[in-house]
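Researcher: Predict the fold of Peptide deformylase.
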Amino acid sequence: MGLREMRVVPDSILRKKAKPVAEMTPRLQTLVRDMFNTMDHEDGVGLAAPQVGILKRIFTVGVGDVRLCFVNPEILETKGEVLDIEGCLSIPGETGIVKRPQYVKAKAMNENGEEFVIEAQNLLARCILHEYDHLEGVLFTDKLEPEDEDFEPEETDDDYLISLNFLKKEK
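Model: Structure tokens for Peptide deformylase follow.
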């Protein structure tokens, strides 16, 4: 089980924009496995490659039964707004209130180079958008809302995955 060293603020790599992946190689597949292991080891629900020192457009998520790798992700659509508390493995011990869309539709490749489109809401949408921000060099602390000592997270249902469709490659 490979674990990667977590980069934490103020590490400058966390502020850099990640580069697209030209092709999935065995070395990058090993990186993805290590990222899942590291995410699990750190009790996270997501991890972006820059957080382990690799400036590639790759992140992993693990919310409920959904465990996916996103390579070269694109955000196709967002809807709604939800305030909730976020934290980050690269900013240990710090949390804050962040407004994010409740729904996201994204397209990416998995670690095997298969394209997929996912529609997600609630926690999974928040996780995808948080990790996508890492690929842009943006941290959740850049998006903090004013603290309200009486803040209660908005009630959302437990449904987080709307659809996941793998796209067939045209030959």
